[in-house]
Amino acid sequence: MIPHEYTSCPICASQSLTEIFTHKIWRIPVLQCAKCTHKFASKHMIQEEDIFNSNRERANLYASIVEKIKPNTLLDVGTPADFYFLRKVHTLCPETKLLALDLYEKKHPEFISMIHAFPQDGIQLTSAFHVLEHENPISFVKDLCACSQQFLIGIPNCHSIKRSRFSSYKPHTHFFNRDSMNCLMQQIVPTWKLIERKGDGNPINFSQLVVHNLDDQLNIPRTFTHIVPLIRSLRSTLGLYKYLLS
């Protein structure tokens, strides 16, 4: 790894920074900006391997949104190696041209085109789910928005130090909240929507920030059922209860 060390906030360029905790994986300081409240690791570490799997509950939700749009082209950035989201979209929108952008070469279905850099333009919809927290924020979002008419970006909602510390158990460099995400977007696009989404695809009591410029009538759910995680929790509790009685 060749890390890039931050001496100012990567969102607003302020140098008014405070160390708030130590990153759980990299054991380096995590800083908070006094101006835009963005939290970030003091060094941007380079991830050298693809270790991520698809969150199928979340992917199913977003595939259903793509089905309503029926874009002629969809670019998904940072697609996990199982290509679950794009496979799901292919079953719902077989006419949509599908592209996957990733640093790593991956064996992929023939109906998906693999690319390794943002195209100049020509994309109707670009999605990036839990990718931005690993990237250089301004250049990443600029390139994403420049190539696409519409965008759909999902990130963990790190609204507190506690949530940010939990997020640092993964190789995340950036820990966004509403204020820092809005500060980022206002530098790049004239209009956007930001919502907080809870429910399936998120751990209980955690939420996700979703940034997009899609039509209002698509109605991205802010709260989605927690019935699946609840069933899992009840099963776990019942198993523990049986163990204690045995």
How many helices? 6
Helix percentage range: 25-40%
CATH architecture: 3-Layer(aba) Sandwich
Give me the Rg, rounded.
19 Å
Side by side, the strands of the main sheet go 8-7-6-9-10-13-12
And the CATH topology?
Answer: Rossmann fold
User: Please, what is the average pLDDT?
Assistant: 87
Span from first to last CA? 50 Å
Determine the CATH superfamily.
Vaccinia Virus protein VP39
Q: How many β-strands, per DSSP?
A: 13
Briefly, what is this?
The chain is an alpha/beta fold and 246 residues long. The protein has helices at 56-69, 84-92, 137-147, 161-167, 178-185, 227-245, and strands at 4-5, 17-22, 29-33, 39-41, 43-44, 73-77, 97-101, 112-115, 123-129, 148-156, 174-175, 193-198, 207-212.
Could you explain the architecture of this structure?
The chain is an alpha/beta fold and 246 residues long. It has a single domain (56-234), classed as Vaccinia Virus protein VP39 (Rossmann fold, 3-Layer(aba) Sandwich), CATH 3.40.50. It has six helices and 13 strands. The strands form three sheets. The chain has a seven-stranded mixed beta sheet with strand order 8-7-6-9-10-13-12. The protein has a four-stranded antiparallel beta sheet with strand order 2-3-4-11, with helices on one face. α1 (56-69) runs parallel beside α2. The N and C termini lie far apart (50 Å).
Task: Please tag this protein with its features.
alpha/beta; Rossmann fold; globular
Question: What's the topology here?
Answer:
Blueprint: E1 4-5, E2 17-22, E3 29-33, E4 39-41, E5 43-44, H1 56-69, E6 73-77, H2 84-92, E7 97-101, E8 112-115, E9 123-129, H3 137-147, E10 148-156, H4 161-167, E11 174-175, H5 178-185, E12 193-198, E13 207-212, H6 227-245
Parallel strand pairs: 6-7, 6-9, 7-8, 9-10
Antiparallel strand pairs: 1-5, 2-3, 3-4, 4-11, 10-13, 12-13
